[in-house]
C-alpha cells in the first residue's frame, strides 16, 4: 500500500457522522419481505370464496362435505414456500458479493463493511473492487474503472486526481485514494435505481383469465347461493319444517354444492403447482424464478432485448489475430535506410508480441494476448530489458537481440515516427470500425546485437510498423447457438448497448444475431423521443449503440406500444429501470444487487445459454395449462347451468359437495396435473380464456343437460319419492355416476390422441373411479352407491342417453355459437 500523508477522519468524526445518518447504509432488499409474500398468497379472491363456503358447510356439522376447503391450505402453502425459497436464494447471492473496504482513519488503514463507510471518509479503491460510494480522487496510482454498470460503455476509463468517480463502477487496474462526498441513498447508483426498487407484480394472462372467471362467479354466486338455499328450503317442506327438523343443514349443503362446483378451485391449484414445479426445475439449472407468474410470461415473449456486455460477451478481452501492415511481407522485408537486410517471420512477430505483454502485472489486454498466444504454443523468450506498459505513454517495449520492439496504441506510435504513415492509420481505423481493439507492433532494426542499448525512454523515429494486433470482447461460447434457438422460436432479439454501434454491430455479426443477413445497427442518439414513432423505427433495427439508461426504458415502452411482449436482460445498474419496465426482467447472477432485486428471473451462474430452457419451460406450462383448463371450466359451466335449473324447477340439488370432490379429483384434478407436465414448446398466444371457453361450453352444456334430465325424469320412472332420504340418496348416487361418465368423456377429448400413453391415462382414472365405488370405506365417505336391479338398468339407460347428448352438444353448440357470432357481426358488434 503506498504511503500517504492524509490521516483521514478521527474516531469522533466517524461517530458524529454515524449519529447524523451520514453512512453508506442503503435499504437494499433483494426481494419482497416475508409479510408481503404471505399477504399476496393468503388474501386472494379465490381463497375468500372457498373459505366462506367451507365455513357454511362446517356450521351444518357435515364436515365430510367440507374437504374441498383444504385446497386453500395447499394452494397458499405452495405459493408461500416457493417464493420464500426464491427469496432466500437471492438474499444469499447478495451476501456473497458483499465485502469489506479499506478506509484511512486516524492515520491508519482500517477495514470496514460497506455500510460502515461515512461521509468525508478517505477510501482506498483497489483493483478488482466495486466503488461503494461517490467520491473525488485525492491520489491515484493508475486507477482505471469499468463504468459499464453505470453507462453501458464497456471500455475502461482512467481517472486523474481531482476527478469525480461514482458508486457502481469497478476498478480494473491500479488504485486510488478518494474522499467520499456522497453516501447511501444520495450516491449516484442509489439515485439511479430508486425508482426501479418499487415492487412491480408480474401480469399473468392465465391468472387474469382465471380472475375474470372468479369475478364473474362472485357476482353470480351470491344471488345464486341465496336462490339455491331458498329452493332447497322449499324442497324439504318450507322454513317451518326446515328449522324444526334441522333440514336447513341439508339445504345449505346442497346450495354450497352448486356454489363450489362453479369455482374452478382445481385450476387455481394446478396453476400454482405448475408454476412452482417449473421454478424448481429451472432452479436445478441455476435459474432463479423470483415470481411464479413470470413462468407464464416466459411463454409469451416475442421480443428479447439483450445487453451486450455480460450477456453476449463476458466482459473480458480476447486475442483475435496478428495482421501484417498493408504492403509488408513477414517472411523477408526491406529494412530502414542505413540498416542491413533482415528477415522476419510471422513467428518472430508473435514471439515479440508475447514478450512485450509478458510483464510482471500485465493489464487486461496483455493477459488476453498472452492467453491467446499460449494456446498457440508460445512462451517467454529471451529479453535483455523491457519498458513496462504505461497508460500515460500508451506503449511498452522489449529489447531483444535483434533490436527493439515497440507495442502500443497505433496513433501514438505512428505520431512518433519521422515519416507520414497515413496508410497504416487508415488500416487501423478500418479494423477499429469493425469492432476490434487495435494495437501496433513496430521494430527498430540494428546491425548487430552489440549496438542495442539496454534502456529506452522514447520511441525511435526510425522504427518500422510491422503488424497490427487485433483484440475484441470475449464472446460467450454459447451465444451463437442460443440466438439461433430464439430465431427458430420466432423471438426477435435486439442488442442494446452503451458501446459504439459499429462495435456492437460487429459483435452481433459474429454471433449471427439475425442469421444469414447482416444486422441493422443504429446510434441511439438518432432515435426519436416519441414512443409511437420509436416503435416504428425499432421494427427495422437490430442493434442499438450509445444507449442511455433512460433510453433503454423508452425502448421497452416503444416495443409495448407495438404490441410486443418484452423480455430484457442486463447486469448493470443502468439496466435496472428497463428491467423493471419490461414484461420479464432477466438479471445475471453477477449483476448489481439493485438490478437483481427488480428482475423476475436471475441466471445465477450468468450463463446466457440457460435462456432457451427458461423460455421452453414457460411454454410447456402455458400450452399444457391451456389444454387442461377446459377440464375445470367444463365443471364451472355445468355447475352454473345445473344450479340455474334447480332454482327454476325447485328440485333437490342433484348431488353432494363430496360427490363433486371425488369426481373432480379423478376426472379433472389428477389427470390434468399429469397432462400439464408433458413436453410442449408451442409459443403461447394471448386469448387463453376465449379458446378455453370455446371448448368448455359444449362439454358443460352436455353434462348439465344429462344431470338435469336424470333429475327430472328418473324419479317418475323409478317411483322415487325425493322427500325420502333413501330415494333422494339413490337419485344423487345415480347422478354422481352420470357426472363421472361425462367427466371421463371430457377427459378423453382433452387427452387426444388416445393412441399413446394418454389413452392409458384415461383408462386408468376411469378404472380408479369404478374401483373406488367398490371399496366400502371410499364409498361410505363419498356417499357413493353401487346401483343394483332396476336402479342399475335406469343408470345404464341414463348414461347411454348422456353419451348421445354429449356427442350432440359437441357438434351443435359450436355451430350455434358461430351462427350467433355471425349475426352479431352483421349488426356491428366486434366478436
Automatic annotation (TrEMBL):
GO CC, one annotated term: plasma membrane
Keyword Transmembrane: yes
Disordered: region residues: 1-25
Coiled-coil portions: none
Segments crossing the lipid bilayer: 42-61, 67-84, 213-233, 253-277, 628-648, 660-680, 692-714, 734-754, 761-785, 791-817
Pfam families (UniProt xref): E1-E2_ATPase (PF00122), Hydrolase (PF00702)
Keyword field contains Lipid biosynthesis: no
Compartments where located: Cell membrane
Domain P-type ATPase A: 102-195
Membrane topology: Multi-pass membrane protein
Single GO term (MF): ATP binding
Signal peptide boundaries: none
Keywords on record: Membrane, Translocase, Transmembrane, Transmembrane helix
Protein origin, superkingdom: Bacteria
Name of the protein this chain belongs to: Haloacid dehalogenase
Species per Swiss-Prot/TrEMBL record: Bifidobacterium scaligerum
